[in-house]
Amino acid sequence: MSWASARTFRHGVHPGDFKELTRNLPVERVAFPDVLTLPLSQHLGAPSVPVVSPGDCVRRGQLIADSGGYVSSRLHAPCSGTVRSVGPAHHASGKLVDAITIDRDRASAQKLQAMRPGDWRTQSREEIVAQVAAGGFVGLGGAAFPTHVKLTPPEGKHARFFIVNAAECEPYLNSDYRILLERTDAVIEGIKVLLKALGSEKAFVGTEDNKADAATLLRERLPPDLPVEVLVFETKYPQGAEKMLIDAVLHREVPAGRLPIDAHVVVNNVGTVAGIGNMYLRGEPLIERVVTVTGPGIRDPRNLLVPVGTSLQHVIDHCGGIHPETRQILFGGPMMGQAQRFLDVPVMKGTSGILFLTDQEVVERQEYACIKCLRCVDACPVYLNPSRLGALAKSRLYEDMLDHHIMNCMECASCSFVCPSNIPLVQRFRVAKGLLKEQAARERAREVAT
Amino acid sequence: MSSTVNLLVTTSPFLKDRANTAWIMWQVTLSLVPVALLAAWYFGLGVLLIIAVTIAGAALPEWLQARMQAKPPVVSPLRDGSAVLTGLLLALTLPPGIPLWMAFLGGLVAVLIGKTVFGGIGANAFNPALVGRAFLQAAFPATLTTWRPAGGLSDLTTIPATLFSVPFLRSGVDGVTAATPLSQMKFGGELPEWIDLAKGAVPGSTGETGAILILLCGLYLVTRGILKWRIPVAIICTVWLAGTGLHALDPSYADGWFHLSAGGLMLGAWYMATDPVTSPMTQAGCWVFGVLIGLLVVVIRVFGGLPEGVMYAILFLNACTPLINRVTQPRTFGTRFKPGFTR
C-alpha cells in the first residue's frame, strides 16, 4: 500500500477481525417479511409517539411515529401494509417495549412514498437539519443517537471538523465496509450535505487498514474540490469509538465527561452519512439498513439490506437457518453486542450485525484471582486502571470508583477481553455506572425538591 | 416461542484473548527450558535433579492447600503452573552443588511462606522464588556461596556428591570450588572478559550464567505480549548507565557491560522483577520500579557488603510496590488538552 497507516490512538487490543466470512459478499436485499415490528424506542432519547392506529393502511416510507421530544426520532413504515397493533413486543435489549406492528400488504409493489427533501445546496443549515430529523436518522454504528441533535451544536460551539466514522472496529462486521464500496456516491453526497449543515471547514473519513481498498476507492471518487481527507489507521479495537477516532484523526483528546463538540468535532457513522446522502438523492427516509449476518453458527453468512422491523427469525430463514450447535445470537459485534433470547426480536436502526456463535466460541467464565499482569491497563483506551476498579467493584465500593474515573469508562470491553483471569471487569463496571448514575439522579431530584 | 434452540444470554464481550493465567505461566516456564538446558551443559545433569526436587517442594503446599480447603477450588492451583514456575525459577538461582534436601526445603518455603500464607496466587507481596532463595541464603550461608567452575561435555554426567548429603550431617567432601565473577570483583581477582560472562561459562548459580540466552528467552516472552517489558528495559538501561558512569569516574570499578552480564542480573531483570503479582500495576510504576532496582543492584554490588544485590534489590522494591502503585495511577483520557482547543 502506498498509504502508510497513520498514527492512531494509544492502547487498545487486537482481537482478530474474523471479517473474511462476509467481506467479499455484496449486499443483497432480503425479501419483505410478512410482519414488521417497529419498537418506539430504537434510539437514544425519548420514545417516538405513534401517529397511526391499528387498522390504518400505511405506505412504504410514510411517517408512522413522530419524535417524542427533542432528543428522539421519527419512524417511517418500512413496507406498505396495515397497522395491526401498537403494544409491547420483544426488544433486543431483552425488555418488552411498545412497538408498532405492521402486516405487509402482499399485493403491494412496495413502491417508496418518497420524501421531498429539496436541494441542500439552496437550503440553510437549519433546513438541512430539519430534513435529517424528518428522515428519522440516528447513528447507525450501534448507539443510535438522533443525528439531528448532533448536527445542532449548542450555543457558542462550532464543529470545525466533521469526521465520518468508517473504522468498523468490531470483529466480524462488514456493513460499513460494504457501504463504502457499494454506496460510494451516497457517502460522498452525505459528506457534502453534512459539511454544509455543520459549516465545517474540513471533513475526514477514518477507516482501518483492513479496509484500505475501500479507502482507495473513496479517494478516487471524491471530487478534488471537496475538503475531505481519507485516513487509514491500524486495525485496532476500539478504533471506531468516537473519542479514539478523534484522537487518531486530530491528535486531540475530547475532555473527560464531555462531547466531541467540546473538541470542535462532530462524528457520524458512514452508514448514517450514506443514508442522509440517499435521502437527498432518492427521497428515502431511514427505513432499511445494511446488516452483516455472520458467524460460525449461521449456514450462509451474508451482508443484507434489511427493512427495519424485520424479525431475527426471518433473517435466519433467509440465510439458510442456523447450525444445531449455535448457542449465542448477538445483535452487534462480539465486543459490545447484545445476546438475544428470542427469535422474534426485530432488526432496528442501530443493528449493524447479527452474529451467531456456537458452543466453541462461548467464552470461559470461571473467574480466577487477579495476577496484576498489567494487560488491562495496557489495553484501556481511556487510561483507566481496570484491575483496581475491578477490585473496588467486587467489594461494591462504588463511590471509591468515582475517584478512579469510572465514569470515563466507555464500556468497550477491552479489559475483559485481555484479562487472563476471566474477571468480568466491564460487566461489573456497567453495573457500577448504572447504580452511580441512579444515585446521582436521586440526589439531583432531592436538591430540586428542597 | 418459535425457538427450539437453547440460547445462552450473557453480556459482552463474547471474544476472549487466548492468554489465560495458566497459558501465561506455562509460556514463561517453557521459555526457561533453554536456560535450564544450558545450566545442565555447564554444570552437569545434577542441575536437572535440583530443578525437579525444587519444583516438587514448591508444588507440595499448593497440592496440600487444594486438598485441605473446605471448598476445593474448581481448578487445582497446580494446573495454573505458577508453583512449577516458582520452583524452576528458584532452582535456577541455586548453586549447582546444593544438597537436594536444601533445594526441596527452599521450594517448600518459597511457596508456603512466599505465597500460600498470603492467600495464594495474586495475593503475595514478595516474589516467592526469591523468598525461598533468601531463606536458603540465611539458613545455609556457606552452601549458598559455594560455587563450582563451569564444565562442559566431559563432566556432563558427573553428579557432585554434595547433592546427596543428608540433613544435619556434615558433608565430608566439598568438591571443587571456584569464585564467581562478582566475588572476584568484590574481593579482588582477575575479572573475566564480559563476553565469556555473557555466554555463561563461569562459576555461578545454575541458571544465572548465560546472559545472552536469558535475554533471548525474555525477548520471546515480550513478543508473546506476556512480560511487563518496561521493567527489564528499565533495569538494564539503569544498570548499564550506572556501571558505565562509575567506571568512567574511576576505572577500578567494573564497567556497565560487566554488570549486565554478571551474576543474576539478567535472570532477575527478565524473570524475577517481572513477576506480575509483585510488580507495579501501572505503566509509569513499572519504569520507576525497574530504575530503582537497577540503581540498588549497582549500589549493593559496588558499595555493599555482598557481592550480589539482585535478589535484595527486587525484594526491597517488591515491598515498595503498593506505594509505587499509589503515586503512579494513570491520568485518564481527556485530561490533557492542547491549548486553544478546549471549551
Describe the structure.
The complex is a heterodimer of chains A (about 450) and B (about 350). By secondary structure, chain A is an alpha/beta fold. Among the domains of chain A are: about 160 residues, NADH-ubiquinone oxidoreductase 51kDa subunit (Rossmann fold), CATH 3.40.50; about 80 residues, no CATH class. Helices cover about 30% and strands about 20% of the residues of chain A. Chain A has 13 helices and 17 strands. In chain A, the strands form 4 sheets. A 6-stranded mixed sheet of chain A has the order 1-14-13-17-15-16, with helices on one face. In chain A, strands 2-8-7-4 form a 4-stranded antiparallel sheet, with no helix packed on it. The longest helix of chain A is centred in the last third of the chain and has 25 residues. Chain A is globular, with a radius of gyration of 22 Å. The termini of chain A are far apart. Chain B has about 350 residues and is mainly α. Chain B has a single domain, classed as Orthogonal Bundle (Ammonium transporter fold), CATH 1.10.3430. Helices cover about 55% and strands about 0% of the residues of chain B. Chain B has 15 helices and no strands. The C terminus of chain B is likely disordered.
